[in-house]
Amino acid sequence: MSTHSSRIAARIMVAPSVALLLLWMVVPLVMTLYYSFRLYRLLSPDRTGWAGMRNYTWFFQSPDFWLAMGNTLALVGGVLVITVVLGTLIALLIDQPVWGQGVLRILVIAPFFVMPPVAASILENLFMHPQNGLFAAVSMALGYEPILYLQDYPMWSVIAIVSWEWLPFATLILLTALQSLSSEQIEAAEMDGASAFGRFRYIILPHMMRAITVVILIQTIFLLGIFGEIYTTTQGGPGSASTTLPYMIFKQAIVAKDIGRAAAGGIIAVILANIVAFFLMRGIGKHLDT
Questions:
Q1: Cβ atoms within 10 A of the Cβ of 66, count?
Q2: 241, 231, 223: which is closest to 80 by C-alpha?
Q3: Which spans of this chain does the record mark as coiled coil (predicted)?
Q4: pLDDT tens string 82-131
Q5: For an engineered disulfide with 82, which of 39, 155, 163, 216 has Cβ 3.0 to 4.6 Å away?
Q6: String of b and e for 39-55 (b: at least 16 CB within 10 Å)?
Q7: Do 41 and 259 touch, CB atoms closer than 8 A?
Q8: Is position 62 within any domain?
Q9: Containing structural domain, residue 198
Q10: Does a structural domain hold residue 87?
């Protein structure tokens, strides 16, 4: 049993790490907040001073901002639906005893270890390319014109690319949950005459809800910051058709050289991410306690 002195000693030993972690998070946030109220453009360094709320009002009055917000929510929602549904189906499939099951599982989760820009390049050039891609070859073999995926359906293409990257993660988590399900429950339901859909609806799915919740929470946090896939494939275009909020902030910081507006966009993104996380935790976090 720990004594009072041992607890104090433990807190003293942990304190430097906690202080360093706070500095690691607080200093960049405070600097971003400071520059969000400043007039700071690298192309006109002589123009400085306080900008007040102008950097924030520019974002809210820009048509691209609301388009970027819609694209960000479409990206997060689309990828979550695809990865959870397909991840559940694939987990059910590869959980069955088949020859080469170990190798099959490794192949299923392999895309998750590919770096995002590399994965985006693979899908762009090997699958979606209008001349040399696999999809173009299939379309021409069937007598149809190749589809310009990144030009005609840029946001759907980005959602497909990101879903391909995150599907192995969802499959791995859901497969782990599926393997912890007692086979005796399934066998008892089969003996009682329950159909395959009934066993999935009333036994398997409730058992997997906690894992699905974990997948949604973790993926949402990372999907709100997706950038590399868009930069590699569409660069936010055509126009602003596939621009998300992180990519819009990037364009203000790197292309427009406007650090003040980019900092304001960063603060807006942090606030929105916390709002989404709050409602997610309240809405579906209750499954973690059951």
A1: 12
A2: 223
A3: none
A4: 999 999 999 888 888 777 777 887 888 777 778 888 888 888 888 888 88
A5: 163
A6: bbbeeeeeeeeebeeeb
A7: yes
A8: yes
A9: 53-286
A10: yes
- CA-based R_g, the chain, Å: 24
Cα 181 to chain centroid, rounded:
28
Residues 258 and 41: beta-carbon distance below 8 Å: yes
pLDDT for the residue 78: 94
Helix 154-179 to helix 63-94 angle (10° resolution) is: 40
Distance CA 274, CA 280 (A): 10
Quote the crossing angle between the two packed helices 54-61 and 63-94, to the nearest 10°: 70
Amino acid at 102: G
**Which residue ranges in the chain fall short of pLDDT 50?**
none
pLDDT value for 4: 75
The pLDDT tens digits of the residues spanning 160-181 come to 999 988 998 999 899 888 888 8
Residue 14 resides in a domain: no
CATH number, domain with residue 92: 1.10.3720.10
* d(C-alpha 75, C-alpha 223), whole Å: 8
**pTM metric for this prediction:** 0.83
Number of domains, the chain: 1
Q: Which residues, other chains included, contact 142 with Cβ-Cβ below 8 Å and sequence gap of 6+? A: none
Beta pairing partners, 38: 50
Burial class (CB in 10 A: 0-12, 13-18, 19+), 4: exposed
The residue behind tokens 């494939």 is 233
240 contact partners, CB below 8 Å, separation of at least 6:
64, 67, 68, 248
Inside any domain, residue 58 = yes
